[in-house]
């Protein structure tokens, strides 16, 4: 009887087969341990979404600061109309020519406008990506899976469309400040550039100067938005997908090495897809004399006068700039998320 009472108070003992126990062991990386208080699958709060916006803006500002010289050379290449393949178009020739004629400081052209652009553009396109991903997943009632590429592309399209359209004025000012002017830049600083461009549009539209000024600031918004969507869908989605595949197959664990590999793939892919649209966008934004009548006219003009390869002018610098920007921005983004106690992307 005493033995029976002792047995009734003892907890049940389950003996697992060694092989079964081995299979149930889960390897957790140090980063994942730091954020174990986050519940996977739950909907983040508005404060957490806001923190993602802030960290996305901060990481991309850091990346733009590093890659700004490459961005300036890329813009200069894309504005040249020489035959593709000309040695004068090479990035080293353009860069050396800039330093010789304008000084090393010319590599920092448009820096302030670039920082302002990243706050809005990247804050939305990267910071709001997971917001739209969560919302679209909920609205689809499970029809869109979190692992599927469709949900990622739709989320990136939504976030990039908003960010690109809102940031167009800062993007236009950045390009104007980075362009080459034989008699010296007409812009003293970002504020002066905004005022000058606004007055330029207001003067060209006597009937409605306010609307004319705003139209000038949003010139090329169609190409900007298309480029933003193409770049974000290829960059953010490929980064997300590569991380998912490498982690899911046990090739790599969450950490800087995984972030580096995924961002390198993302940088190459988005450079290939976005360069043609970027060329059109730059041409439209620097067309002060209104010689180009929209995106289609710009595309047709480039094809007829310079050939199809002109859409890949500045690709070396585009890849160098976007590749660097992508690596720095994603690694910084992931590190900031870790510091703020958020789960990895």
TrEMBL record:
PROSITE patterns: SOLCAR. The keyword Transmembrane applies. Pfam families: Mito_carr. One of its GO terms (cellular component) is membrane. Coiled coil: none annotated. The keyword tRNA processing does not apply. It is found in: Membrane. Keywords: Membrane, Repeat, Transmembrane, Transmembrane helix, Transport. Its main location: membrane. Solcar repeats lie at residues 47-135, 147-245, 254-339. It is a multi-pass membrane protein. Belongs to the mitochondrial carrier (TC 2.A.29) family. This is Mitochondrial carrier. It comes from Phlebiopsis gigantea (strain 11061_1 CR5-6).
């Amino acid at each position: 009887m005493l033995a029976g009472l002792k047995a009734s108070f003892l907890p049940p003992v389950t003996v697992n087969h060694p092989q079964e126990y081995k299979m149930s062991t889960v390897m957790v990386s140090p980063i994942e341990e730091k954020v174990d208080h986050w519940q996977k699958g739950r909907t983040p709060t508005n404060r957490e979404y806001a923190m993602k916006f802030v960290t996305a803006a901060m990481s991309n500002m850091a990346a733009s600061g590093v890659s700004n010289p490459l961005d300036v050379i890329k813009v200069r290449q894309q504005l040249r109309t020489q035959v593709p393949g000309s040695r004068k178009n090479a990035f080293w020739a353009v860069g050396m020519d800039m330093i010789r004629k304008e000084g090393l400081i010319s590599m920092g052209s448009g820096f302030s406008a670039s920082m302002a652009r990243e706050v809005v553009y990247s804050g939305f396109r990267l910071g709001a990506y997971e917001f739209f991903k969560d919302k679209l997943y909920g609205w689809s009632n499970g029809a869109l899976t979190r692992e599927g590429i469709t949900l990622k592309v739709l989320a990136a399209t939504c976030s990039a469309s908003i960010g690109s359209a809102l940031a167009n004025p800062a993007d236009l000012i950045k390009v104007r400040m980075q362009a080459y002017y034989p008699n010296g830049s007409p812009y003293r600083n970002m504020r002066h550039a905004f005022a000058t461009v606004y007055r330029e549009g207001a003067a060209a539209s006597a009937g409605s100067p306010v609307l004319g000024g705003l139209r000038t600031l949003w010139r090329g918004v169609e190409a900007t938005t298309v480029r933003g969507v193409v770049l974000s869908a290829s960059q953010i989605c490929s980064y997300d997908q590569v991380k998912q595949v490498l982690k899911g197959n046990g090739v790599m664990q969450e950490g800087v090495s995984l972030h580096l590999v995924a961002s390198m793939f993302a940088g190459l892919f988005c450079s290939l897809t976005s360069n043609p649209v970027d060329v059109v966008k730059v041409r439209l934004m620097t067309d002060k004399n209104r010689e180009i009548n929209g995106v289609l006219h710009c595309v047709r003009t480039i094809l007829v006068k310079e050939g199809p390869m002109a859409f890949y002018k500045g690709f070396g610098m585009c890849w160098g700039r976007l590749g660097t920007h992508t690596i720095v921005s994603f690694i910084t983004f992931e590190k900031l998320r870790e510091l703020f106690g958020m789960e990895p992307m």
